[in-house]
Amino acid sequence: MENHLIPYNTEVPDIILKEYGRNIQNIVNYIMKIEDREKRSQYAKTLIELMKQINPAMRDAQDMHHKLWDHLYIMSNFKLDVDSPYPKPETSIFDKKPMGVDYNTHNLHFKHYGRNIELLIKKAIELTDKEDQEAAIIYVGKLMKRFYGSWNKENIDDSIIVEHMRMMSKNKLVVDVEKVKAQNLFDSQREQREPRNNNGHSNGHQQHHHRKNNNRKQDNNKRRRS
Question: Has residue 196 got a pLDDT over 50?
Answer without folding.
Answer: no
